[in-house]
Amino acid sequence: MNKKSFRETLESGEFTITAEVGPPKGTHIDEMFHHIDLLKDKVHALNVTDNQSSVMRISSLAVCQIIKDKGGEPILQMTCRDRNRLAQQSDLLGAHVLGIRNVLCLTGDYITVGDHPQAKPVFDLDSAQLIHMVKSLNEGKDIGGNELSGSTDFYIGATVTPESKPIEPQLLKFEKKIKAGARFFQTQAIYDIENFRRFMDYARKFDIKIMAGLVLLVSAGMAKYMNKNVPGIFVPDNLVDELASTEKGKGLAKGVEIAGRMIRQLREQKICDGVHIMAIGREGVIPEILAAAS
Amino acid sequence: MIIAERKTFDEIKQIVGDAHKILIVGCGTCVAVCMAGGEKEVGILASLLRLDAKREGRELEIIETTVERQCDKEYLEPLAKKVSDADVVVSLACGAGVQFLAEMYDTKRVLPGLNTRFIGVAEHEGMWTQRCMACSDCILGETGGICPVTICPKGLLNGPCGGTNEGKCEVDNEKDCAWTLIYRRLEKTGGLNNIKKLFPPKRYDVQTKPGKVIHPAYEKGEGKAHE
Ligand code: SF4
Ligand code: SF4
Questions:
Q1: What pTM was computed for the model?
Q2: How far apart are CA B133 and CA B119, in angstroms?
Q3: Beta partners for B165?
Q4: Domain coordinates in residue numbering, chain A
Q5: Measured between CA atoms, how close is A128 to chain B, in angstroms?
Q6: Closest Cα to residue B165, out of A228, A225, A53, A239?
Q7: Residue nearest to atom 7 of ligand 2 (CA)
């Protein structure tokens, strides 16, 4: 793709696209290699999740390096669940010297939802404090105020849930993340463009970039399940109906069409600065989504 | 106060082993209020152990006693005779009380009969909930009297995580999200500005274990107390 970095692309105002790579649990990485090869030149950067859903997997840092080796650009996801501030900072310094330049700061799911429910949850910092810490490393100091011999240069990202209910505490945190130093946001999945437009009317007040999160829908059942069980996700009735009236076996194709259509609308109407596509196990169809969006 | 729960009977039976004479020491303060280790619970445990021994045809003598507080030496000293007569001592105090009793009578096996759970309140009859982690640096003044360190499972200081849902917590959807509670409380009491600032990370140096508190009046020996 272009030689511009993810940061340059997003900051230049060009509509920017990212996708996600979930590291496997175990050392077989063929499938992940395949996904990286498939996507690295089609999107501007690839997020690498950090023990997603509190399930132990290959480290985000290692997979970011693999993406770089393959010529792609990684976004290191870092949660607060598994490391204290020392471990987080040393990983961040390590990421910088490996040439990783983007970091997405997250709280992390609670530990009991994953596959090591008895482990000690860390949460030494919260996501806003993590953002502040990365900013401080960029400025040449660690979180304890100690001088670094050589600072980092991270493009700092964060997340926000525009459909969170109630919304006020969520926005309080969003604004704190901006104050702490977040430069770009990837949102939790959004499906209702009108709701999202209202969120963007508010978010445009701030000097930040916002990428809309899109989770690929594959059936009406999945949409209904998410509405019921996933906090902060709202799939409007018209999309549920559209999926429900799809011929059997064509759910995935319909989901691809919907995602493509949403991306096109977000881009053409300049609603936000880009999209972050989460295909959750169906990374293979991302090129089709992008084709449907063009 | 300290909230505790009695260990299962099977576990207690197992740790006392084949002792013939057991002293059960209750504690009349926190654990009596939360119905885990007061005089009444000492009686219940004693009956259970006696019944079990009888059923198995074992000889067992149990002495029951309950002191005002096991975390204060003056209440433990009078137990000397009873302790020395027993093979083992089962303490129904919180973990602190068990240790203090064991420290005072350090030639005797002193065993815990409770699992100590947390610092909490009686939310309603028969139900206690955790309210404080004893973090040594209380921020309740800024968070509307609701503790995010405790009420939020992740201890988040700067607002909710992405999992909060209709005011409930992602970790337990029966429980309110600490940050919705805090926001709503401050909305009512007019302190929302308090939480707009970025709270710095919690200091863990002040929580280095084991903690120690010396009242200022006692800081430099007795002399100071009279200054
Ligand atoms: S902030 Fe919370 S944990 Fe700390 S002392 Fe206050 S109530 Fe206890
Ligand atoms: S939902 Fe609220 S209380 Fe629960 S972990 Fe998230 S912020 Fe904490």
A1: 0.95
A2: 7
A3: B168
A4: 6-216
A5: 7
A6: A228
A7: B160
In this structure, which residue's CA is closest to atom 4 in ligand 2? B169
B93 is written with which tokens? 């105090």
CA distance B172 to B174: 5
pLDDT tens-digit profile of A197-222?
999 999 999 999 999 999 999 999 99
Q: Is the bond leading into B210 cis (omega within 30 degrees of zero)?
A: yes
CATH architecture of A6-216: Alpha-Beta Barrel (3.20)
Helix, strand, coil content of chain A in percent (nearest 5):
45, 15, 40
Strand order from edge to edge, sheet including B21-27: B61-67, B21-27, B88-91, B109-112
Report all structural domains of chain B as residue ranges with CATH numbers, in order of start: 2-118 (3.40.50), 134-199 (no CATH)
pLDDT tens for A235-291 read 999 999 999 999 988 999 999 999 999 999 999 999 999 999 999 889 999 999 999
Q: Cα(A25)–Cα(A57) distance, rounded to whole angstroms?
A: 4
**B160/A164 touch (CB, cutoff 8 Å), yes or no:** yes
With tokens 């109407």, the residue in question is: A269
Reported residue count of chain A is 294
Q: A7: exposed, middle or buried (C-beta count within 10 Å: 0-12, 13-18, 19+)?
A: buried
CA-to-CA dists, residue B14 to A197, B8, B11, B95, B111, angstroms: 64, 10, 5, 19, 11
Distance A234 CA to ligand 2 centre (A): 19
Nearest one of A68, A98, A85, A193 to A144, comparing CA atoms: A85
Instruction: Give me ligand 1 centre to Cα B141, in Å.
Output: 10
Which atom belonging to ligand 2 lies closest to the Cα atom of B180?
A: 2
CB contact under 8 A, A169 and B163: no
User: What was the ipTM of the complex prediction?
Assistant: 0.94
